[in-house]
C-alpha cells in the first residue's frame, strides 16, 4: 500500500520511459474508441435513420466529454507538479477537491441538458423524424453523466502519478462491458427487450458506472490520494482555482472541437442524412487513427509536469522532440493505410452506397494532416502543464474557427462535400506548424524565468 506519491518520471531513459507510459495508454484510448465504434456499428445495423440520429448526438456528447477531459487535464497538471515538488498533502487536497467539483458540475449540466434536447438538436439540423430517436438516446445518457465526468478526473489523477496501466485497464474493461451489452440491449437478445437506440445509451451508462466505482476505489484505497480530513472553504476554493485555471480553458479548447463539428454537421446536413451518417462514422474512425498520438499527448503531460516541477528542463525538451518526430511518422503511416483500405473499412459500418462513398472520400483526404494534428495536440498538452492554457486555447480556436470552418464553407461552395474534407486536412497541417513555433517560444521564455 502506497501512502506517499513519489516523482517517478524524472529519471531514466526518456524514449524508453515514454514508450512504457504510452503503450498501456494506447490500449486504453483504443478501447474507448472501440467503445464508440461498437455503438456506431450496432446502431448502424438498425438503419440509416438510427445511425444519423446517433451522429447528431456525437457533437453534444463530445462537448460533455471535453468538459470532463479538460477538468481531468487541469487536475493532472497541478497534481503532477505537486508530486514533482514532493508535496503529498497538496496531492490529496487537489484530488479530493477536484472530484467534489465534478459532482457539482454534473448536477448543473444534467438539469440544463434534459430541458434543451429538442431545441438544441433542431438547431443542429435534426429533422422531425430523427428527433424522437435522439431523445430516446440523450434522456438516458444525461442521467449517466456523473459516470463520464468523475472517472475522467479520477483516471487523470492516477496518470499524474506516472501510472498509465491502471486507467488503461479501467477503460478496456468498460469497453468490454459495453461491447457485450450493446447487442443484448439494442436487439433484445435472450430475455431482454429490444430497446434499439435507447439500449445503446443504457449500455453506455452501465459500463461507465463500472469505471466510476473502480477509479474511486483505486484513488482512495490504493493510491491514498483522497482525504476525508476537515479543511477550510478557502482551501477547497484554492484547489478549484488551480484546477479550473487550467481546466476551464482546456475544456473550452476541447469543446471547440465538438462545437466546430456541430457547425460542420449542420453544413453536411444540407446534403442529406446519408452524408451526416458517413461523417459520424468517419469522425469515429479518425479518433481510432490518431489514438496513439492522443495517448502520447496524454502521458506527455505528467512527464512534463513532474520534470518541470523538479526543474529538469532538458528532459522536457528531449521528450517533446521525440514525441513530435513520432507523431509525424505515425501520421504518414496512417495516411497511407487509410487511403489504401478506405473502401473495405467503410463497408464495415454501412451497406448504403452513399454512406460508403462519402466515408471513402473522407479517409483518402483528411488523414493527410494527421501527423501535424498530432503536433498540435502535443504542443497544447505541454502548454497546459506550463500554466499557459489560454495559449493552448488560442491555437485550437485558430485551427477550428479561423481555418477549418471558413475554409469548409468555401470548399463546400466550390467542391461540395469533398471541399469540406480538404478544408479539415489543411487546417490540421497549418495549425500544427503554428503550434510548434508558439510552444517552442513560450517554453524558452518560461525556462529563462525559472
How would you explain this protein's 3D organization?
- The protein has 450 residues and is an all-alpha fold.
- It has one domain.
- Helix content is 84%, strand content 0%.
- The protein is built from 16 helices and no strands.
- Helix 1 runs parallel beside helix 12.
- The chain is globular, with a radius of gyration of 21 Å.
- The model has no long low-confidence stretch (mean pLDDT 85).
Oligomeric state of the chains? single chain
Strand proportion: under 5%
- In sequence order, what are the helices and strands, one letter per element? HHHHHHHHHHHHHHHH
Number of helices: 16
Mean pLDDT: 85
Number of domains: 1
**Largest sheet: number of strands, sense, barrel closure:** none
Query: Low-confidence stretches at least 5 residues in length (pLDDT < 50)?
Result: none
**Class based on secondary structure composition and strand pairing:** mainly alpha
Annotation, overall tally of beta strands: 0
Q: Give the termini distance in whole angstroms.
A: 35 Å
| Helix residue percentage | over 70%
Globular, elongated, flat, extended or rod-shaped: what is the shape?
Answer: globular
Amino acid at each position: 500500500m502506497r501512502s506517499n506519491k513519489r516523482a517517478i518520471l524524472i529519471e531514466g531513459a526518456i524514449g524508453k520511459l515514454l514508450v512504457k507510459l504510452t503503450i498501456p495508454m494506447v490500449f486504453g484510448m483504443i478501447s474507448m474508441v472501440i467503445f464508440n465504434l461498437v455503438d456506431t456499428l450496432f446502431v448502424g445495423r438498425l438503419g440509416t435513420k438510427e445511425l444519423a440520429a446517433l451522429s447528431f448526438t456525437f457533437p453534444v456528447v463530445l462537448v460533455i466529454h471535453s468538459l470532463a477531459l479538460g477538468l481531468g487535464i487541469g487536475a493532472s497538471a497541478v497534481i503532477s507538479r505537486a508530486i514533482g515538488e514532493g508535496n503529498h498533502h497538496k496531492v490529496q487536497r487537489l484530488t479530493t477537491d477536484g472530484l467534489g467539483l465534478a459532482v457539482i458540475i454534473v448536477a448543473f449540466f444534467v438539469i440544463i441538458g434534459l430541458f434543451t434536447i429538442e431545441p438544441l438538436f433542431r438547431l443542429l439540423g435534426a429533422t422531425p423524424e430523427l428527433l424522437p430517436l435522439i431523445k430516446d438516446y440523450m434522456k438516458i445518457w444525461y442521467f449517466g453523466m456523473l459516470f463520464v465526468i468523475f472517472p475522467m478526473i479520477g483516471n487523470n489523477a492516477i496518470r499524474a502519478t506516472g501510472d498509465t496501466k491502471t486507467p488503461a485497464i479501467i477503460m478496456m474493461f468498460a469497453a468490454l462491458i459495453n461491447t457485450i451489452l450493446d447487442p443484448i440491449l439494442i436487439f433484445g437478445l435472450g430475455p431482454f427487450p429490444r430497446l434499439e437506440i435507447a439500449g445503446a445509451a443504457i449500455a453506455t451508462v452501465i459500463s461507465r458506472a463500472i469505471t466510476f466505482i473502480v477509479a474511486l476505489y483505486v484513488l482512495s484505497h490504493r493510491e491514498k490520494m483522497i482525504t476525508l480530513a476537515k479543511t477550510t472553504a478557502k482551501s477547497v476554493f484554492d484547489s478549484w482555482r488551480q484546477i479550473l485555471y487550467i481546466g476551464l480553458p482546456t475544456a473550452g479548447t476541447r469543446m471547440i472541437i465538438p462545437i466546430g463539428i456541430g457547425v460542420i454537421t449542420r453544413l453536411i446536413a444540407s446534403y442529406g442524412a446519408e452524408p451526416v451518417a458517413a461523417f459520424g462514422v468517419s469522425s469515429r474512425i479518425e479518433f481510432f487513427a490518431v489514438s496513439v498520438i492522443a495517448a502520447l499527448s496524454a502521458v506527455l503531460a505528467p512527464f512534463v509536469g513532474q520534470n518541470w516541477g523538479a526543474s529538469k528542463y532538458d528532459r522536457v525538451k528531449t521528450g517533446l522532440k521525440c514525441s513530435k518526430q513520432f507523431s509525424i511518422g505515425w501520421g504518414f503511416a496512417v495516411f497511407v493505410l487509410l487511403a489504401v483500405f478506405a473502401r473495405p473499412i467503410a463497408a464495415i459500418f454501412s451497406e448504403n452506397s452513399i454512406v460508403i462513398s462519402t466515408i471513402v472520400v473522407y479517409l483518402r483526404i483528411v488523414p493527410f494532416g494527421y501527423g501535424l494534428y498530432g503536433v498540435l495536440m502535443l504542443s497544447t498538452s505541454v502548454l497546459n502543464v506550463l500554466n499557459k492554457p489560454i495559449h493552448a486555447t488560442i491555437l485550437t480556436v485558430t485551427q477550428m474557427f479561423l481555418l477549418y470552418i471558413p475554409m469548409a464553407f468555401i470548399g463546400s461552395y466550390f467542391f461540395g462535400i469533398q471541399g469540406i474534407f480538404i478544408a479539415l486536412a489543411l487546417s490540421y497541417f497549418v495549425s500544427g506548424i503554428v503550434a510548434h513555433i508558439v510552444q517552442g517560444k513560450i517554453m524558452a521564455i518560461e525556462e529563462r524565468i525559472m
